[in-house]
Amino acid sequence: MTTENHLLEQVRSAISQRTPLYIQGGNSKAFYGNTVDTTLLLDTTSHTGVVDYMPSELCITVRAGTRLQDLEYILASEQQLLPFEPPVYTSASTIGGAVAAGLSGPRRPYSGAVRDAILGMKILTGHGTIIHVGGQVMKNVAGYDISRLMTGSLGTLGVILEVSLRVIPKPAHELTLAISRPHDEAINYFTRLRTSGLPITASCYLNDEIHLRLSGSTSYLQSLVKKQEGQVIEKADAFWQSIRNHTHDFFQQHDKPLWRLSVAPASTASARLNTDNLIEWGGGVRWISSNTPANIIHSIARKKGGYAVLFRGKIAGVNTFPEPEPALLALHKRLKHKLDPQPVFNPGRLYREL
What we know:
By secondary structure, the protein is of the alpha+beta class. It has helices spanning 3-17, 68-76, 95-101, 108-111, 114-117, 146-150, 183-193, 218-227, 236-244, 294-303, 326-339, and strands at 22-24, 41-43, 50-54, 59-63, 80-81, 118-124, 130-134, 159-166, 168-169, 173-180, 200-206, 209-216, 231-232, 258-262, 277-280, 285-289, 307-312. Helices cover 28% and strands 24% of the residues. The protein has an 8-stranded antiparallel sheet. It has a 5-stranded antiparallel sheet with strand order 3-4-8-6-7. A two-stranded parallel ribbon has the order 1-2. The longest helix is centred in the N-terminal third of the chain and has 15 residues, at 3-17.
């Protein structure tokens, strides 16, 4: 029996017995999302390998259990990379888990989010069937773009078996500038950068320094450096890997909950949350390590045109994601019922009501 058929049989058994399943790849993001109340595991880590790769067409199709490190090694051999630069928390991290979590790294505002790179998927549904969506097979099911909806759904809609991805050429050269700025000037600096025309591929602010990663030819980058303030830093790759994979010291503060605020990039810094924080994506993401009450953090995020996610750490009575408005939650429920009617896939992990 193939791995795919084995997964299908497990799902059909769970459906017939109405037993919830916990979908797991490399389990590197077990901390992310609400707790799933089941001990029955659906392990996708054996479902690995490249199905199709066309470097000249900038697309690749891989099975969900393929490790991110292996996938990036294959792409690097053709001088290509994933545009959304997903975090690789452990050597076991998989592409299926990266897509299901919908997490992007430093390159995201400049090359696109996870869902922007998705061309299609093969999905195991809660009906005990396998469907193809996107690509040249089927654009949607029941009017929905299912491949995009699966991205970031944390396995609550179905099991990703295969994913087709858009890839991009690896930049010829990159360098990183470090620019000293006080905290209250960082957002204004990022705002001015949006019309600067600089070839930015990553940005962050931490410890009174703005870091900008620039890409291009060696001669072009050298000419830019002469015109820009700041210093070129050594070992820049290691720095960005520490931001991407959350190994930087900032992310190791496990004594406090870690919040991720997605806000309007130009929104001002909060006087209540201006310490123990890291700014990414030109101001669009604010990482906060804080014991500030959850209701205050959610209120601040809303006032800044966004929302807050309890990224890591458990707080009694607090869900990972803010509850959506009633109309949106009703839509989530209808979609969940359409694809997973029993329901058996990761119940409650995204929202308690699903």
